[in-house]
């Protein structure tokens, strides 16, 4: 079975993008259906689990995409261009929050975790929730490379293009993010 990343890449080709650029609403619907969950996931993690803000960013991205799809020139993969828009929107949201929240980001320990009711998966769910929480607590410059690498499956080159930095910077940020996650999750070491 193909990964979701590869499936979306094979479904959304240049012909769909061109149709979107020509105003084809059905092509845009296909684009939206294929990328909405991925855009939301990046926004959700980037915005520390704030679902309302992630929904807002997702809507903003697709509204902006409708207006600016003609600016996509095909010089990079479409996903790279799209994820760059998401990263920029999330960065703008962080800046906006800093202006209106004088004490910085909200206390992340108050973010509620939703867990499935299935008892037999509780241990795995608990570990997964701890990992998600630890990722959300990373600073955006370390969180985004981790999300793009492990959730979206992007290469170092693609991540560098999305984040507008060098591959070396991507490697450094991934390394520092891994170290911070190891520290945050050290209490789980005996349970694994």
Walk me through the structure.
The protein has helices at residues 4-11, 14-21, 25-46, 51-68, 78-100, 122-137, 140-151, 156-163, 167-184. By secondary structure, the protein is mainly alpha-helical. It folds into two domains: 1-105, Orthogonal Bundle (Rna Polymerase Sigma Factor, Chain: A), CATH 1.10.1740; 120-192, Winged helix-like DNA-binding domain superfamily/Winged helix DNA-binding domain (Arc Repressor Mutant, subunit A, Orthogonal Bundle), CATH 1.10.10. Helix 7 (140-151) crosses helix 9 (167-184) and helix 8 crosses helix 9 (167-184). It is globular and about 55 Å long. Mean pLDDT is 79; it is low at 1-10 and 101-121.
Describe the structure concisely.
The chain is mainly α and 192 residues long. Helices cover 69% and strands 0% of the residues.
Which SSEs are present, and which pair or pack?
Layout: H1 4-11, H2 14-21, H3 25-46, H4 51-68, H5 78-100, H6 122-137, H7 140-151, H8 156-163, H9 167-184
